[in-house]
Amino acid sequence: MHESLAVSALAALAHAQRLRVFRALVVAGMDGLLPSQLADQLKVARSNLSFHLKELATAGLVTVEQQGRNLIYRAAYDQMNALLGYLTEHCCAGTDCAVTTTPRCPC
User: Name one Pfam family in it (predicted).
Assistant: First the structure.
């Protein structure tokens, strides 16, 4: 992952509401969620949610697929794993530390 992409992803996740949205999509798995499901689950206004989903998509952390009249949002696990890898790539300068492996989502 390039540094500018990491900065963009971290900036998107630095907002509490966007972090909640992203975590809900990670939990939902590859089935993803409709915006109405996310709004109900997180108890957030749909107009507000739309803004946050757009920001997460722009940062590459969320994908959107149109199925008929519905939009399905999913976490972009490849980008999430790339960000985790970028953050832990040179962990502890090559010495032993508490983190022994980079956690990866099997999705």
Answer: HTH_20
Residue 80's identity, in one-letter code, is M
Count of positions (residues) in the chain: 107
For 72-90, the pLDDT digits (tens) are 999 999 999 999 988 888 7
Radius of gyration of the chain measured on its C-alpha atoms: 15
The residue whose two tokens read 């975590």 is: 23
The pTM of the full predicted model, rounded to 2 decimals, is 0.85
CA–CA separation, 15 and 89 (whole Å): 24
- Which segments of the chain are extended strands (E)? 62-67, 70-75
Angle between helices 16-28 and 3-13 (to 10 degrees): 100
- CA distances to 34, 44, 50, 66, 83 from 103, rounded to whole Å, are 27, 30, 29, 30, 11
